[in-house]
């Protein structure tokens, strides 16, 4: 099989050749867009799921949907070691530029940009030297007395309100997409929730679409109790057999090639239906197949190569971030589950290692902060990366 024509593309956030199994999520956002267009109140959206299920890809698709509707849109990737003010300013600047091409009142756009600049300039700490102050690249004077108090919750409500009103002027809306939302700092999470609450009450056409790990709802709830009613939560899971069949066969057929049913079944067993793994194993199978069609034997030959690439790029990079004590904890989790994608009791990990639970708390807490595990429910913990336990038992 010609490797140049290989349609499969494993990559972080890279759109697969066939976006299968995500009709429910796309339809949910289509409803949000349509309701906001009709002036009806609508909740913001939060996508949750393990790594490798395609949340980042979905955010990109939702952003494209918003842009096709003439909305302004910007995207943020949260980081645990950075505040949200600066990336939010950059994302909303992009959204305002999207709206500006349709707005007939440049002075109105400049006024909002002035508020946005004032918000952005507060990212610098009080007393910071001029050379250390971030300049947002907005060529208008900063507004005074609007979104510049230094309190992120107050400022974000005011900024969201002004940007949403600008969108309302041209009969559209704004979609702000936040990836890795579980990494947003507590004060910033509180500000996001408060802003969404304010906008929902006023019916302003701005929606936040967040994506994060399965424990993201708990993070939001800990910040604001009303967050459970503020967002519409959508769980993004692995593909079913039928969805996997479409994800694999459709790209192959578009290239004028074939794949046997046994090969499709073998790919499902290898990938578990997780979209990132589907792309990795399918790409390897295409390259390994000497002739058309791709067979189950080709999948068997290709699997070790795909496993090796995943071990280095997907699993290994995460494992390397763990300390020896954290790795011991991870291996214990894998041994308790037999490599399956299941949650384990924290007390069970302590028993397995012959240690007191309190002595393992630092390692567990550090793994939680690094995003390698999440608290599935009180007293239980699970890997954020599918098949990670299987990797650890093979390593």
Automatic annotation (TrEMBL):
Keyword Protease attached: no
A Gene Ontology molecular function term of the record: metal ion binding
Pfam families: AAA_16
Disordered: annotated segments: 1-22
Alphabetic keyword roster: Heme, Iron, Metal-binding
Domain Cytochrome c positions: 168-319
Family matches, as Gene3D superfamilies: P-loop containing nucleotide triphosphate hydrolases
Transmembrane is among the record's keywords: no
Name of the molecule in the record: AAA ATPase domain-containing protein
Species for this entry: Streptoalloteichus hindustanus
């Amino acid at each position: 099989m010609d490797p140049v024509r290989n349609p499969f593309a494993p990559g972080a956030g890279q759109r697969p050749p066939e976006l299968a199994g995500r009709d429910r999520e796309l339809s949910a956002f289509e409803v949000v867009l349509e309701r906001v267009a009709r002036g009806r109140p609508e909740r913001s959206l939060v996508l949750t799921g393990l790594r490798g299920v395609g949340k980042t890809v979905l955010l990109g698709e939702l952003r494209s949907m918003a842009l096709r509707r003439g909305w302004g849109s910007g995207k943020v990737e949260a980081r645990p070691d950075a505040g949200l003010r600066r990336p939010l300013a950059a994302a909303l600047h992009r959204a305002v530029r999207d709206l500006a091409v349709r707005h007939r009142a440049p002075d109105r756009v400049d006024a909002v940009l002035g508020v946005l600049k004032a918000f952005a300039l507060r990212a610098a700490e009080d007393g910071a030297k001029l050379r250390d102050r971030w300049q947002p690249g907005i060529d208008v004077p900063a507004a005074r007395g609007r979104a510049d108090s230094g309190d992120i919750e107050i400022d974000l409500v005011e900024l969201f309100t002004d940007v949403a009103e600008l969108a309302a002027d041209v009969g559209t809306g704004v979609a702000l997409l936040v990836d890795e939302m579980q990494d947003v700092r507590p004060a910033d999470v509180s500000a996001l929730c408060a802003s969404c609450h304010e906008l929902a009450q006023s019916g302003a056409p701005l929606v936040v679409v967040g994506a994060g790990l399965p424990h993201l709802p708990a993070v939001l709830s800990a910040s604001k109790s009303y967050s459970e009613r503020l967002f519409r939560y959508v769980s993004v899971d692995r593909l079913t057999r039928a969805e996997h069949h479409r994800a694999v066969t459709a790209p192959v057929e578009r290239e004028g090639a074939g794949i046997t049913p046994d090969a499709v079944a073998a790919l499902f067993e290898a990938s578990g239906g997780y979209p990132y793994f589907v792309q990795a194993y399918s790409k390897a199978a295409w390259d390994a197949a000497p002739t058309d069609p791709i067979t189950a034997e080709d999948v068997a030959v290709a699997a070790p190569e795909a496993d090796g690439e995943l071990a280095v790029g997907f699993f290994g990079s995460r494992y390397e971030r763990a300390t020896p004590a954290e790795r011991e904890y991870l291996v214990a989790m894998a041994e308790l589950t037999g490599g399956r994608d299941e949650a384990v009791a924290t007390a069970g990990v302590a028993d397995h290692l012959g240690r007191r639970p309190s002595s393992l708390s630092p390692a567990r807490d550090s793994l939680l902060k690094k995003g390698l595990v999440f608290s599935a429910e009180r007293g239980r913990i699970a890997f954020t990366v599918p098949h990670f336990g299987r990797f650890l038992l093979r390593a």
